[in-house]
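Because discrete structure vocabularies remain unfamiliar, it helps to consider an illustrative case, giving the amino acid sequence and backbone structure tokens:
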Amino acid sequence: MSLNKKLDDLIDEMSSTGGQGSEEYNTPNAFSKSGKEDENDNAETSGWKKVKNESTFMKMAKETMISEISYKDYKKDESATSKQKVNRAIREINSKLYKIEGILNRSIKLKSEAGVDNTKYWKSTRSNLHKISEKMQRISERLRRF
């Protein structure tokens, strides 16, 4: 399942009761007597179901292996075999590189159409380009070893 499809599915699941452009209320203890979360949750005794709020980013991170987990936890995860994990990772890398290439192509086209030359770059941009180049060389070497 592609990242875009996953995002579409998550967006479809989001509530739209607040109307367009509004944010959901952040009242996690609205049904408690003291205003603090306690073991005797009034929401559940009143017929409401308590739902753990999890951000869209965290949902996506869990589904796409973006989360910041240690290698030890990643290796121990039994939801997929090692072969599946490696193949999914390669597929995800390919997808992200495709997107990066698209961003780069659009930027190059805009740069040439607008007549922006290298002297117009900010100092940080030149530094970032150098860092990206070094990263790409390291990645290329790792990919050859892989």
The chain has six helices and no strands. The mean pLDDT is 76. The two ends are 25 Å apart (CA to CA).
